[in-house]
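Input.
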Amino acid sequence: MAMTLRLSDNEADALRLRAEREARSMQDVARQAVREYIENHSRTELLDRVLDEELPRYAEALERLGQ
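Output.
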């Protein structure tokens, strides 16, 4: 799928510099950043969901441990 990504001048310069330093294309660097963002946020959402479901079960024990 083709997509247009609009960056500020500063963002484009930073992306260009990073790509040059890594000897990669700007597209490759941007695609990796998107993959990492999705992966990291997916893990956070999973952890939040598990905590929301499981934490109430142990709330009393955690409360006593905190005292």
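The two ends are 55 Å apart (CA to CA).
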